[in-house]
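Weekly modeling sync, notes
Attendees: S.R. (lead), two postdocs, one rotation student

Agenda item 3: backlog of single-chain predictions. S.R. asked that every request posted to the team notebook include the full sequence so nobody has to chase files. The rotation student volunteered to paste the first one in as an example of the format we agreed on. Action items at the bottom.

Example entry:
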Amino acid sequence: MAMNIKDLLKPMIDAAKSVIEKKWPEVKTYAETEFKKIGENILMIEALKLQGKITEEQAKLLFDIQKNASSSIMLTIEGIGKINAERIINSALGAVKDIVNKALGFVLI
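Predicted structure, as returned to the notebook:
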């Protein structure tokens, strides 16, 4: 099953909104940009896996790099704090976890 960015982006945004409703207007632009990057990273991992060009270990490292970069960006938003940044990212990823892991055939998220 090939994933697409729309299948990933909407659930991530919806999940993040529910975690940080009051601050969403301040976070929206950053969050949507970062979730798109995470989604594109996941799609790249899927393509590389289908081509046999990446191992599970390499995929997990690539994913962790993007996840950490996105968390760092979220931390730049005044008033978000580390806990909320992690909650936003983890909630968004939780919303697509089953889709991603099933499509890849291994646990990435």
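Discussion: group reviewed the output briefly. The chain has one domain: 5-104.
Action items: rotation student to repeat for the remaining queue; S.R. to check formatting next week.
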